[in-house]
Amino acid sequence: MENSLPALLWTPSSNRATFDSPLSPEAALARLQAGFGDEFRGRVEGNGVKVWRARDFSASRGTFAPLFYGVVTPSAAGSQLSGHFQMHPMTRLYTAAWIGLSGLLALVFLVAAAQRATPDSTAADALPVLLVALLPLAGLLLVRFQQAKGRADEATVREWIEKTIK
């Protein structure tokens, strides 16, 4: 797993998945569309597929829950569904904004504290800067925690896709 910020925000779990099916691409897409129900939800548009686990069944509820984005293409054996798991695009945008803006706020507090610093300044004067500097870290930790909760959902969606298109 990558630990870089872009990987964290854009493909947080870095989980790519490829599923082979003996069905034609059209038949595989139709089977996926017909398989959506109470536990697994999704959307099929053209040859693209979006699959997620319903909130009532999901371990990681809300917008941090992992979604599978994939594309069905023809293959020699029938078809292949290739894609990846990631958070919803608005969640990724919100997380990037949180980390970016809170990092900027921490920088502003740091510069202001440095300008106000005197030889008589104490560690207590640095406390507000430290607390604000922890905001980006809190955002990163929240994402990591939600990713860990979402691993079970990713595994369940993988199993469902595998079973559905065979």
Gap between N and C termini:
29 Å
Radius of gyration: 22 Å
Number of spatially distinct domains:
2
Q: In the CATH scheme, what's the topology name of the largest domain?
A: TATA-Binding Protein
Mean pLDDT across the residues is: 86
Q: What kind of sheet is the major sheet?
A: 5 strands, antiparallel
Overview of the structural elements:
- The protein is of the alpha+beta class and 166 residues long.
- The protein folds into two domains: 5-87 and 150-164, TATA-Binding Protein; 91-141.
- Helices cover 52% and strands 22% of the residues.
- Strands 1-5-4-3-2 form a five-stranded antiparallel β-sheet.
- A hairpin with a 2-residue loop joins strand 4 (67-75) and strand 5.
- The mean pLDDT is 86.
Main attributes?
5 strands, elongated, 2 domains, 166 residues, single chain, TATA-Binding Protein, alpha+beta
